[in-house]
């Protein structure tokens, strides 16, 4: 048991109350560890606002979600009507609903930017591997949460989008049909599906999400924040034991983040009041039509933040399977002829290539599309062990690395755009090339990240007061 701290009888009432709490709960200790005496690098730039913004949007989603649940009815016959009731009859219901729907897209905007910052500054490198893994877990939970929430309005796109995604699980060999039946809770997407998704969206996934967010922040504050130079500020400490290149998170970065939140709110509120559908990207027009199992929309596509992965799913056709098999054999040939290894290992590589080829030819391309779509997210978890660059930050890598990351971003945006568009021959070819580049970027990273001459990294962070 911790020793109780005494305080002067003449101390102010507030100090006495704080001391009483501190003797029973580590309030001051938590404040100092995570705000007041948590030293962050002094050279944070614009990209470092998105972590705090993600936390802020999470709060918006939870609060608005609570108010929506008060009036929403998870019943296939009543769900669409209850959303209309919220929009038309509940006082300020339209505002709460638009805050929640716009917040979903805002969440992915800030999270994608947050992940991009981690990618270019090497925030996934040692000793921050767990921080990155928890972050990827958060991203995976967000995707599940967004997909399940998308079904709840029970409009045309909600219904048919769920139909398409759930049917993808049926492509899994042997267990697929049973797995799809378990997810739907019925032989068709219906009331049972809606109830399942509602319970997961409101209770199960948010609990996991909050646990991962807490783990992400605790892991971050244990090892310290990265910075644009990729230098460990803990390596250079002053006489007081604090990093010379660090400043307390509060008040310096709390003010920094409050300013970022105010700028974010200006954009956020402008969208809510003037363009809540955002041209059909945030709220699709077909979703304002009640779900009709007998009438399929002309073009079914997920919301914009899923479309890069949806493009990869659609890119896997019979022709693409031949290209993938060729990639497997090129990789096997390079491994066998380029690297010195015992004959037994070479035989195992060739045998594995034969087995993979047989599997790819015997199982339908639709299943491999699901594998590719899932693999596009799962591969992010392995990033800390794929990067072989001697330096962390893009600032000190060879200049051509910047172009590589630039092409990666452009490729991702193109895939996102193609996922919104109806299928076409040209779009299919472009998405196939984009899919190969996306996976090539990560799978070949152990090779290309070590190429070129890295620039010398300074001992201390580079910072100019402004």
Task: Kindly describe this structure.
The chain is mainly alpha-helical. The chain is 64% helix and 1% strand. The chain has helices spanning 13-22, 27-36, 50-69, 79-88, 93-121, 129-151, 156-169, 176-184, 191-223, 249-274, 307-315, 318-338, 343-362, 365-378, 383-386, 399-420, 425-443, 445-448, and strands spanning 39-41, 246-248. It has a two-stranded antiparallel sheet. Helix 6 packs antiparallel against helix 9 and helix 11 (307-315) packs across helix 16 (399-420). The model has no long low-confidence stretch (mean pLDDT 90).
The biggest sheet, with number of strands, parallel, antiparallel or mixed sense and barrel status, is: 2 strands, antiparallel
User: Please, what is the average pLDDT?
Assistant: 90
Number of distinct beta strands: 2
Tell me the overall shape: globular
Helix tally equals: 18
Give the H and E element order. HHEHHHHHHHEHHHHHHHHH
Write a brief caption for the model:
This protein is mainly alpha-helical and 466 residues long. 64% of the residues lie in helices and 1% in strands.
